[in-house]
Predict the structure.
Amino acid sequence: MLFQVSSAVVLLASSLLATLPPGSNGFVVGSRSSSFHQSLQHPRHDLTSLSLIGYRDRGLLRSDDKDDGDDDSEALVLGRKNSAERVWTGKDNFKPGGEIYFDVIYPEEGVNKKKQPQGAVFFMHGFSQYPVAYSKTLKNTATKANVVVFAVETGLTSKAARGPSLFSNTQFYLQQAVSQDTMQLIQMFQDGEFSKIVSSKVPVGLCGHSMGGGLCLYVAEQFPKLIDYIFAMAPAYGVEDFDPIVATKKTVAANAMLLAGTWDLLAPARKVEQIAVNSNQVEPKSAIYGPIKLGVHTGFEDTLVIITVPLTFLLSIILNLNSIYEKLFLRLLSFLRTSTGQLEITDDLMVFFFQQMVAGKKVTLENANKAIPEKRKEKITLSFPSSSS
C-alpha cells in the first residue's frame, strides 16, 4: 500500500510537468526559420465532416439529423471529431498530409437562441494534452461569451507531429503541427468555409495553454490584421522557431491577457511576465499580466489527462488502486491541485475577455478586476508591466 501511494505521488507530480518534454525546462535551443511562416496554400479545402449540435431551429444540423421536437441532445460539441484535408507545407518542405481533426464548441442551446455567435476563438492545447482537458472551461466560455471555439485535436499521436523520421525533434514538429493546423482553420474561417455556423466577419481571438499559449503569440504574428485578442494560460517558450518573445518583437495584439501560476516550474511567472513586458513596450497597455498565487502549471486544466485518458483512471489501473482509501487519496491530490481557485479565476477572466472581444472593446484593468469575484481578488494581481519585476 505504501509503495503504491508513493508511486501515485511520483506519477502525479510527474504529470504536473507533462505539457512539455522532460528536460526541456520550457526551452530548446535552435534556430528560428522563417521559410515556412504561413506556408499555407489556399485552395477550397475539403471539409469532409462538420458535425454540429445546437441551434436546432436555425437549420445548422447535418442533413441526416432530424428534429423530433425534443431537445434531448448535447448542446455543445467536444470530442466529436470534425475533419478537413491538411494542405500546408512545413519546414524543409515537410508535407504531412492527412486530416486535421478538430472540435467545434458551440454556445449552449437556448442561451443566445435569437442570434448567431458573435465571435470565433481558436484554441491550442498543451504538449501532452488534448482539448478534452479543458472541456468545461471552453464550453462555459463559448456559451457565456457567445463565441464558437475551434480546437485542433493535433497531438503527440498525430502523423504531422511525428515528423519525417523516427529521429525527428518531436517538440518542434508538434509545435509546427498544432500552429499550422490552427492557421489552416483560421484561413478556412476567413474563406467563409464555416459560414453556416459563424460569420467570417466576426472578431477573432486566440486562446491556449502551455505550449498552446506560447503558440498564440506566434500564430497572431501571422495574422496581424485579423487577431487583436489573445488569452494565454502559462504560455511556454518551447523551441526557438516559435518563441513568443521573438514574435512580440514584430507585432503584438492590441489586447492580450497572460495568466501565470506563481508555483509553475514549466512556465515560470517571471517568464510569462517578460512576454507581457515586451508586448507593452511595442504597444503600451496591450498585455495584462496576471500571476495567480500558488497556481501550478496544470491548474488551468479541468481534468488531468495523458493524451486523452484521465490521469486518475490511469493511476488506478496501473497501480491497482482499488480500495476506498486509495481512491480517496487520489481525490485528495486532485483537490489540492484545484483548491487554490486558479481554475475559477481563469474561467471568470476568460469569459470576460472574450465578451470584451465580442463587444469590440479595449480590455482594461478596471473592467478585468471587476470580472473577478471579491472572494478571489486576493489570489491574483493584474497589471500592465512595462519592465520586469
In short: Confidence is low (pLDDT under 50) at residues 1-79. The first strand starts at residue 27 and ends at 28. The first helix runs from residue 2 to 15.
